[in-house]
Specification:
The chain folds into two domains: 169 residues, Aspartate Aminotransferase, domain 1 (Alpha-Beta Complex); 250 residues, 3-Layer(aba) Sandwich (Aspartate Aminotransferase, domain 2), CATH 3.40.640.10. Helix 3 runs parallel beside helix 10 and helix 6 runs parallel beside helix 7. The strands form four sheets. A seven-stranded mixed β-sheet has the order 4-12-11-10-9-5-8, with helices on both faces. Strands 1-2-3-15 form a four-stranded mixed β-sheet. 38% of the residues lie in helices and 15% in strands. By secondary structure, the protein is of the alpha/beta class. The chain binds pyridoxal-5'-phosphate. The site of pyridoxal-5'-phosphate (PLP) has 16 residues, from helix 4. Pyridoxal-5'-phosphate binds next to helix 4. Its cofactor is pyridoxal 5'-phosphate.
């Protein structure tokens, strides 16, 4: 069923580090080789062996309209015909920026970059430049890309400051990153009592998507806002995953919290390499060329990518699909929980907007420590079972599943039939 993909992976490994250009794509966690994708359309993705899958990865978030939307293709092609990189300003950049600024009260000015990693890294540099402080606080299990300051994990119990979570990150860099537990406001308060005047910013995924989907508890984000205000630290919302995905705006609108800096990516480029960070003018003016915080990019604001982003946001604005998306994820999760219950599978689920996760553990996790208790063997069985039944989900328990506006009720019903089949098999 997957022979050609296996051969292609062996070939890729000869030329590309680990055969992939981003580690999770290798399917290492689930002990398989990746599928090589030939094409995708709507809610479906097709591999080189000729298999068709209902896609719940959706390029890890950007494809909220489903794959290869015709209107987006046409508008992107128009831009392509005019040339595809000038290294000079274009109207398209201003047009995409206007749409973002209009969607977010917290943003007056943006700067475009090419990846969420760059955007989060630059947002932190900006916060450090603005506050003249070096330390940042991040949450265990939240992912903000792979810049040095953010590849940091919790140190020993007695130490607040982080340790590198990757080889190659100097301990001296990691020392400037303080780790806290998601949804633990008391822990954050304790840290601020000791180190508040050194903390430039708190960075958080307001709805965590990188340990599976975990929502903030009531009052948690509001508490962070007031701690930051009290100590003169900036609050950075990393909405790379949630921006334009949970609503035409971000999680900040759902939870009614105004961050100082917002980081966006994924949907904002519609599948092209676009991300950005934005804030009020008072903060953004610290950025070069107006200010002294340096940040740059040869391909930043690429016109073809901008056109794809504009077309994507315009469709989202026009269709306003968010309520329907949320209805569908909530249905998927509640039906899967019903099946888990029926077949005695320990599981819990979470959904918000078009994001959802199924955790193989009884109680819903509320932070990274909790989610570690999930049964990864069950997850692997579930993943492989789905793959073999034509359903493509992220190959890790610690990721969000995404649906798109092209996922039909039939897609969802077919998925649930596959899930029931797998649970039955596991239970027998
Ligand atoms: N921030 C969040 C919340 C993400 O989910 C990701 C990627 O998944 C990033 C940042 C990094 O973005 P990129 O992979 O475009 O560098």
């Amino acid at each position: 069923m997957f022979d050609k993909s296996r051969e292609l992976f062996e070939e890729a490994k000869k030329y590309i580090a680990g055969g992939v250009n981003s580690p999770v794509r290798a399917f290492k966690n689930v002990g398989r080789h990746p599928l090589f994708i030939k094409k995708a359309k709507g809610s479906k993705i097709y591999d080189e062996d000729g298999n068709e899958f209902i896609d719940y990865v959706n390029s890890w978030g950007p494809a909220i309209l489903g794959h290869a939307d015709d209107e987006v293709i046409n508008k992107t092609k128009d831009a392509l015909d005019n040339g595809f990189s000038f290294g000079a300003p274009t109207i398209l950049e201003t047009e995409l920026a206007k749409r973002i600024v209009r969607a977010f009260d917290s943003i007056e000015i943006v700067r475009f970059v090419n990846s969420g990693t760059e955007a989060a890294m630059s947002a932190i540099r900006l916060a450090r430049g603005f506050t003249s402080r070096d330390n940042i606080l991040k949450f265990n299990g939240c992912y903000h890309g792979h810049s040095d300051s953010l590849l940091v994990g919790a140190g020993s119990g007695s130490s607040t400051f982080g340790i590198p979570s990757s080889k190659g990150v100097p301990v001296d860099f990691a020392k400037h990153t303080i780790l806290a537990e998601f949804n633990d406001l008391d822990g954050v308060e304790e840290i601020f009592k000791k180190h508040g005047d050194t903390i430039a910013a708190v960075i958080i995924e307001p709805v965590a998507g990188n340990m599976g989907v975990i929502k903030p508890k009531d009052g948690f984000l509001k508490g962070l806002r007031s701690i930051c205000d009290k100590h003169g630290s900036l609050l950075i919302f990393d909405e790379v995953m949630t921006g334009f995905r949970l609503t035409y705006g971000g999680a900040q609108h759902i939870y009614n919290i105004t961050p100082d800096i917002t980081v966006l990516g994924k949907v904002v480029g519609g599948g092209f390499p676009v991300a950005c960070f934005g804030a009020k003018r008072e903060i953004m003016k610290y950025l070069a060329p107006e200010g002294d915080v340096y940040q740059a990019g040869t391909l930043s604001g690429n016109p073809v990518a901008m056109a794809c982003g504009i077309a994507t946001l315009d469709i989202l604005k026009r269709k306003n699909p968010y309520k329907d998306l949320e209805k569908n994820t909530s249905k998927i999760v509640s039906r899967i929980m019903g099946l888990a219950n029926q077949y005695g599978i320990p599981a819990s689920g979470e959904s918000i907007g078009s994001m959802f996760s199924v955790f193989f553990m009884e109680n819903k996790p509320s932070n990274y420590r909790d989610v570690q208790k999930s049964n990864l063997r069950l997850f692997t069985n579930y993943f492989i079972g789905l793959l073999e039944r034509g359903i493509y989900i992220p190959p890790s328990q610690f990721e969000s599943n995404f649906i798109t506006i092209k996922h039909s009720l039939e897609d969802i019903e077919n998925t649930l039939v596959a899930v029931e089949d797998i649970f039955k098999e596991i239970a027998s």
